[in-house]
Design brief:
Length: about 130
Amino acid sequence: MPKDASAACKDIYPIGKKNPNLPFHPAVRAGDFIFISGQVAKDADGNMISGTIEEETRGTIEAIRLILAEEGATLSDVVRVTTYLEDARDFGRYNRVFGKQFKDAVLARTTVEARAVINTKIEMDAIAYKPRSG
């Protein structure tokens, strides 16, 4: 590996505890960016939470917030979100919760209707920009 490539690899690393049954990490830091894999609402033990679209939206955003916190970032550092809603009719209710949770963020967002491969009303992935200190 060239010297430059070796240095670049040190700038990319996984964040969070990887599920041994899945071929990806909860998030990856690449330089000043944090790429968060699709998240769903989970309890403290990591079990999925099933509830109203409002409850699942809050729980999903909380899962994102917890991952960001591991890198010293917050929801206000999020610059991009993609949301997958099981039912587009939930958009208004989801959007109200989203707006309250991301009130200070300057971000781009896409929301699509798509059925997840797991039983959830919502899944979100995100990208945050948080320059590394030092």
